[in-house]
Amino acid sequence: MDVRSLKEKLLADYEGALDLDGVNGGRLAERLAVLSEIGRTEDGGVNRPGFSMEEKRAKQQVMEWMTEAGFEVRQDGAGNVIGRLAGKTEGAAFAAGSHVDSVPNGGNFDGPLGVLTALEVAEAWKETGFVPPVPYEVLVFSEEEGSRFGAGILGSQAMTGDLDREVVESLTDKEGRSFAEVIEAVGSSAESFFKAARDLDEIGFYAEVHIEQGKLLEEADRPAGIVKGIAGPAWLDVVFRGSAGHAGNTPMAGRRDPLVAAGRFVSEVSSLPAAFSETAVATVGRLNVSPNGTNVIPEQVELTVDIRDLDKASRDGLVDKVRETAQRCAAERGVNVDLRLASSIDPVPVSEVVRAELREVFGELDLEVMELMSGAGHDAMILGRHVPMAMIFVQSKGGVSHNPAEWSDLTDCLHGVHLLKKFAERQMEKMAGE
C-alpha cells in the first residue's frame, strides 16, 4: 500500500509548468489532501455521506479557505455553502462549484476537485490583483451523491426550489432515521431546508469542473474536455411477486418463481438501449430477494433499473420498453409484477453558444478540443434548468470513480483550473456589458 500522503502523490510527477497567472499547484494539492483526511477510510478513500458530520466538517474547512480568500460566506437552510466575492459592478454572479459529500468509501476527486478548482480561480485573482467584472460565487452543494437517502442532488434542488416536499419528507436513511431527524442532527431543520430556495436572478451563469468518471479522455490523451450535455436519469422500481415454497419438495413444473422472471428480465435489459440511441444506457444495480434463503423458492424480488440518455424522447421510449419487458417476463413465468417510476429528471444539454465559447478557450490554451456527454448526474444539471450552464471534465485515470483508486493527475487538474479561470473571465466581461 502506498503510504504517501495525497499531496505527495499529486506533486510527485508535477513539474510546476502550470503555476502561471496566480494558479498554484501546490496549494490545490494541499487542499485536496486536507479534505482527503476528513472521513478517511483504511484504504485511502473517504466516507462523507450527505448530511453527516464529516460532510459538515469538510464544508467548514472550505468556508475557512473562502473567508481567507476574501469571500463573504454563508450557508442556507439546506447546508449549501455560498461564498460571494465582490466584483467591479453589482448584479448577477458567475458561479462555480460542486460538492464535498461522497459515496461509501469513495474517492478524493469526485466533487472536491470542482469546489477547489473554483476556489483556486479566486486565489489566482487575489495573487494577481484581478478584480472580477461582476460578482463571483463558489458554491458547495449538500448531498449530491445520494448515499444517505438514495436520493441525490438534494442541495442544488433545494437552492433552485425543484423539490417535491412530500417525497423528501418521506425519505429515510439505512438506519431508519427520517429526513427531519438526519438534517436536525447536523444543525438544520426540515423547515429551513424547504426555505433554502434563492432568487436565481442572483446567478447569471453556473460552471462546474468535474472528473470525467470514464475513460474517453484518457483514451484520447486529452487532459480535459467539454461536456455537451448531461443525461437525464429515470429510476424504475420493479417488484416481481410469486409463491414461496420448499426448494426440495416443490416440483419444477408449476413453480411461480419471481427470481427466474427477474433473472430473465435483467439479462434482457442490457440489450435494450442499443435500439434507441448510441448514448442510451440501462443498468440494474440493486436487487433484493425475499426471503433470501438457500432452500426457499423466493416469494419476491425487488430491483431498480437506472435508465439514462441525453435525449428525453429516446430515454422515455427506453423506459416504456423496459416496462413492457418486465411485464412479458412476469407473464412468461406466471408471476406478478409491479412497476413504479421512482424518479425522472430531464436531460440537460449545454448550449451550442456556450460550447463554442469553451472551444475558443481551449484553443487559447493550446488544448485540443474533445466534446463528450455526461452519463452521471451533477448539480450542474439542476442549475442548468434555470441559468446558462457549462461543464468541463478532467481526465480520470482508468475511468475509475466512486472508489479509493479514483485518480486525476495534478497537471490535468490544473488544466481544469486554467480553463475555468479563462472561461469565467470571458463570461464575466460579457455579463458586465449586458
UniProtKB/TrEMBL annotation:
Please verify whether the record's keywords include Hydrolase: yes
Q: What class of enzyme is it?
A: hydrolase
Q: Which UniProt keywords apply?
A: Hydrolase
Against InterPro entries, the record matches this protein to: Amidase_Cbmase, Bact_exopeptidase_dim_dom, Peptidase_M20, Peptidase_M20_dimer
Q: Does the keyword Hydrolase apply?
A: yes
Show the SUPFAM superfamilies listed in the entry: Bacterial exopeptidase dimerisation domain (SSF55031), Zn-dependent exopeptidases (SSF53187)
Pfam family example for this protein?
A: Peptidase_M20
Reported EC number(s) for this entry are 3.5.3.9
| One Gene Ontology molecular-function label | allantoate deiminase activity
Please report the stretch or stretches of sequence annotated as the Peptidase M20 dimerisation domain.
232-327
Family to which this protein belongs: Belongs to the peptidase M20 family.
Q: Which NCBIfam families match?
A: hydantase, PRK09290.1-5
Name of this protein: Allantoate deiminase
- Organism, by scientific name, is Bhargavaea ullalensis
The top of its lineage is: Bacteria, Bacillati, Bacillota, Bacilli, Bacillales
